[in-house]
């Protein structure tokens, strides 16, 4: 099968290109930046360029985007041009070329303020039923692009699957306080309890979405590691997260002590992946339980695919105050 991967020089894009090639698909990689996995260098904001890339394509994996780290370095129009207009171009040319399925990588950031409960309130239980309240141009443009996908399915019958992925970047956290308080791997491992997913599992979700797209037609799915928590834990997660974690993993503190690690004191949200597991048949391997076992054995925590792809960053330059500037 001939497939198009947008953002093929990026973190998820490269991972997708690697895996698709392993599966013997013909992969056309599109990106602004040259890489071994990018065959066509150009912008999705250029519709004529997008059209040139669509010949013979059966499946589009659209991962190219301006991200949250770009909010401080790019203006509003650039976000609109890339995340909305670029997606529109891809949808229009997919339809014209007879593409059979369109898999769009969105983000849990679309939920925005809906995931920030006020002090004294339980943690947010984040399912697809939660109404998004985007808090920056990144969230606004990704939500608009999701709606374009739905429009093209409803009006033109183009099967479109939207995957709202949680964080999977390998870089350190953008918050200075968290970087100062936690080792990088410690913080990431904590996040697998409520707001992180492994790159290997994201790739698997993408492949399953492509398999199911024509049967499902359209759908939005949260792609995050399976959390052990239940709705009745939400209040305690705001006041004593470590105690709640201990209820499910009685030995985690002993394991953590061996690494001089610690748990977050509070979780403000819990991402729920039940819909993706049910509809896509997705079975994410990397969750807190799996990572705890790897810690006990002294093994690598990242998947082999994530180690191959490595850290990409988001900018061509470095910043003194963190991995990227915060607006």
CATH homologous superfamily identity of the domain at 2-173 and 194-225 and 269-285: NAD(P)-binding Rossmann-like Domain
CATH topology of the domain at 2-173 and 194-225 and 269-285: Rossmann fold
Helix-strand string? EHEEHEHEEHEHHHEHHHEHHH
Shape: globular
User: Termini distance?
Assistant: 42 Å
Structure characterization notes:
By secondary structure, the protein is an alpha/beta fold. It has a domain at 2-173 and 194-225 and 269-285: Rossmann fold (3-Layer(aba) Sandwich). Helix content is 42%, strand content 13%. It is built from 13 helices and nine strands. It has helices at residues 11-22, 47-53, 76-97, 137-156, 176-181, 184-191, 199-216, 234-239, 241-248, 252-259, 274-280, 288-297, 304-309, and strands at 2-6, 26-31, 40-41, 59-62, 101-107, 124-126, 160-165, 218-223, 269-271. A seven-stranded parallel sheet has the order 3-2-1-4-5-7-8, with helices on both faces. A two-stranded parallel ribbon has the order 6-9. Helix 3 packs parallel to helix 4. The mean pLDDT is 94. Pfam families: Epimerase. This is Nucleoside-diphosphate-sugar epimerase. InterPro entries: Epimerase_deHydtase, Lipid_A_modif_metabolic_enz, NAD(P)-bd_dom_sf. Residues 3-174 form the NAD-dependent epimerase/dehydratase domain. It comes from Pedobacter steynii.
């Amino acid at each position: 099968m001939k497939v198009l991967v947008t953002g093929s020089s990026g973190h998820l894009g490269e991972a997708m290109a690697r895996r698709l090639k392993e599966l013997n698909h013909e992969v056309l990689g599109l990106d602004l930046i040259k890489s071994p996995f990018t065959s066509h260098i150009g912008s999705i904001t250029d519709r004529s360029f997008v059209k040139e890339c669509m010949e013979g394509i059966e499946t589009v994996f659209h991962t190219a985007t301006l991200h949250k780290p770009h909010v401080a370095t790019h203006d509003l129009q650039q976000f609109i041009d890339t995340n909305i207009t670029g997606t529109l171009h891809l949808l229009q040319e997919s339809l014209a070329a007879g593409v059979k399925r369109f898999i769009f990588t969105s983000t849990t950031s679309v939920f925005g303020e809906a995931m920030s409960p006020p002090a004294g309130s339980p943690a947010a239980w984040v399912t697809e039923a939660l109404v998004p309240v985007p808090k920056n141009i990144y969230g606004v443009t990704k939500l608009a692009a999701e709606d374009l996908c739905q429009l093209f399915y409803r009006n033109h019958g183009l099967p479109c699957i939207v995957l709202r992925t949680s964080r999977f970047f390998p870089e350190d956290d953008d918050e200075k306080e968290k970087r100062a308080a936690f080792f990088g791997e410690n913080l990431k491992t904590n996040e697998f309890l409520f707001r992180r997913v492994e790159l290997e599992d994201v790739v698997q979700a993408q492949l399953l979405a492509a398999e199911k797209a024509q049967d499902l037609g359209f759908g939005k799915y949260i792609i995050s590691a399976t959390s052990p928590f239940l709705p009745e834990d939400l209040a305690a997660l705001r006041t004593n997260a470590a105690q709640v974690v201990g209820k499910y993993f009685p030995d985690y503190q002993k394991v953590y002590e061996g690494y001089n690690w610690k748990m977050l004191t509070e979780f403000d949200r819990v991402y729920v992946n039940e819909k993706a597991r049910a509809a896509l048949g997705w079975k994410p391997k990397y969750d807190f339980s799996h990572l705890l076992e790897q810690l006990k054995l002294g093994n690598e925590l990242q998947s082999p695919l994530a180690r191959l792809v490595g850290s990409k960053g988001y900018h061509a330059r470095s910043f003194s105050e963190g991995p990227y500037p915060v607006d």
